[in-house]
Amino acid sequence: MVFLVEMRFCHVAHAGLKFLSSNNPPVSASQNAGITGTHYTMTNGGSINSSTHLLDLLDEPIPGVGTYDDFHTIDWVREKCKDRERHRRINSKKKESAWEMTKSLYDAWSGWLVVTLTGLASGALAGLIDIAADWMTDLKEGICLSALWYNHEQCCWGSNETTFEERDKCPQWKTWAELIIGQAEGPGSYIMNYIMYIFWALSFAFLAVSLVKVFAPYACGSGIPEIKTILSGFIIRGYLGKWTLMIKTITLVLAVASGLSLGKEGPLVHVACCCGNIFSYLFPKYSTNEAKKREVLSAASAAGVSVAFGAPIGGVLFSLEEVSYYFPLKTLWRSFFAALVAAFVLRSINPFGNSRLVLFYVEYHTPWYLFELFPFILLGVFGGLWGAFFIRANIAWCRRRKSTKFGKYPVLEVIIVAAITAVIAFPNPYTRLNTSELIKELFTDCGPLESSSLCDYRNDMNASKIVDDIPDRPAGIGVYSAIWQLCLALIFKIIMTVFTFGIKVPSGLFIPSMAIGAIAGRIVGIAVEQLAYYHHDWFIFKEWCEVGADCITPGLYAMVGAAACLGGVTRMTVSLVVIVFELTGGLEYIVPLMAAVMTSKWVGDAFGREGIYEAHIRLNGYPFLDAKEEFTHTTLAADVMRPRRNDPPLAVLTQDNMTVDDIENMINETSYNGFPVIMSKESQRLVGFALRRDLTIAIESARKKQEGIVGSSRVCFAQHTPSLPAESPRPLKLRSILDMSPFTVTDHTPMEIVVDIFRKLGLRQCLVTHNGRLLGIITKKDILRHMAQTANQDPASIMFN
């Protein structure tokens, strides 16, 4: 986490912008303290008042100061200091008048207002997406003539002509075969429904990828890898903008309805973060401070998971465990509140008509027994193996997509994947189902009112009454048929999910992973159930499973398998257990869930410690220092810093003997994002650090607003202007844009400490000195490159493209 070290150095002598501007990939954030070994030192080059203006002789701040360029990293320390100064200024004025007191109260409550608005919008959009996706999914099979906006289930709710066995059939609902050729049964009807299913699937997929390509390229994918990177301080302009929100909301419905092997839960986190970003611009406290804005985004990601799974507490833990980089205590409270508001709004909309927040809410009444831990752990092993396989296969495919011509035709790829999915999915009833409905069916326990083929057991004819807990029974023909279909569905889902995640439509991974685990779990659950029924006299069953008792719940195995597979792919632990617990509403099953999820993480970590989101961050080359990754090598700062032995010398500025032309030439001839300022070439004593963009803005502004500033004007970074000949042009004083306290380490500082400092303070770069003399610079890119080299990876793989 950032700011684990208490920062007592906010009195900086500059208001100059602390970001790096060039065509090169970004480095990292901030440089506000000096370090020598493990001892922190601080120099202050001016007072607070001296930092209020960019140029000593200007009365107005320069436009553009305080913002960051695209694909650059924010300066966490500077943003935190800026917020503290703003807070002091508001507190000092609040007693002056009633208006100032009102402004102070508005500022204090703006955090709660922005998360309230974010929660309201997230809940409303999630309800809209759920309703629209359900309707469009059923549109592939038919249409409701009595009310076109009803899906299949709603169409038959009010019908008096449905039967218990065929409760989904009613005169108001017409399949496409009935409408087009007038046949409800037979081979002609089957073929016509098959053709219409493929037509609608391809139409939805084509429309989705076209909208993404034309209007909002950032709307594709899950969004969670990019949100993790943004929360770590990276700037990706437009990723959380209005167009992205609008297109992602529309295309998410289309992508889910197309039947592709993807889910809407991951993209809902992106949708919620878009809402949080847009609402943060209504409040100056967040619109002008990138670090504060990321607190809102952390709360928004919690709201996104809250509405995705109906799990407010799980959403908060997901934000804390999986996506957030900086998570102070007040963000925890606001995340909790945003998740609460979002869940409340979704519950008010009631998109599924079952008074639940998700489609596959279940409740189990049968306790689990100690022996069952063994199959639960086996499901955990399967989840870990699935996760390791999926990450490697999907990353290999995505890398191939990037490096071949296939990646240049995203629309064609989506059409091909959608066509293959639709053609293979239709014949199998379990793959034809919407994935959320499939999970619901797999989770559901077999009661007396269930008509699914998964519940086609041979009933005891001597049973005199219907009870809630039906005893274990021998499987019928329908169950064995369903197992074969589920095995085929499992293979289909595994293969298609590998090729679907990463295509240019909104695509979440939570639901496909849960579906794979739920299928495997249900198969294992039925196997254990039948084993207990036919061999109840075995010692493992004899003590607790009597004849005629309801011992095994196959739906519980499906739930545990779903959690294990999702854990294997994402490597989530605590938040995942809480999410699944909130789905089922049963505290009794936390131990099986914990055992399966922890096993899946251990097995997955044995093949590689990265989860799917970290793997995609590395694939895309985002500058992300993962706090979970350990650095154990014994290198020193001198081994990593630039310049190296054969490199040209470090480009530096001197404090008072360079002209405007000299600095402009250096800016034009180099692509560096900032320049150390030294006393002289001979002494190499460090004075401070000036950023490329600050220099450019300051010089351009001075030429426009100050008379006498020409190319031969002397630039002075010192406190006092040196004496110049009378005929010399007017000097340009740029001390106010100079960072007088750049973060420094000595050349003998272990890289383990340097990496830790970069992670915890969110640094952009630090300077390397020896006895106060400047030796070189270490940027975040240098650290990522060095970590890739020590892990025997290609250092070029971390370059952002």
TrEMBL record:
Membrane topology of this protein? Multi-pass membrane protein
Q: Where in the cell is it found?
A: Cell membrane; Early endosome membrane; Late endosome membrane; Lysosome membrane
Keyword Transmembrane attached? yes
One example GO MF annotation: chloride:proton antiporter activity
Annotated CBS domain residues? 641-705, 738-795
Superkingdom of origin organism: Eukaryota
Q: Where is the signal peptide?
A: none
CDD domains found in the cross-reference section: CBS_pair_voltage-gated_CLC_euk_bac, ClC_3_like
Return any one Pfam family short name: Voltage_CLC
Kindly list the residue ranges recorded as spanning the membrane.
Answer: 109-133, 197-219, 239-260, 267-284, 296-320, 369-391, 411-430, 482-503, 515-536, 556-581
Q: Which family does it belong to?
A: Belongs to the chloride channel (TC 2.A.49) family. ClC-3/CLCN3 subfamily.
Function, please? Strongly outwardly rectifying, electrogenic H(+)/Cl(-)exchanger which mediates the exchange of chloride ions against protons. The CLC channel family contains both chloride channels and proton-coupled anion transporters that exchange chloride or another anion for protons. The presence of conserved gating glutamate residues is typical for family members that function as antiporters.
Q: What is this protein called?
A: Chloride channel protein
- Give the organism the record lists: Mandrillus leucophaeus (Drill)
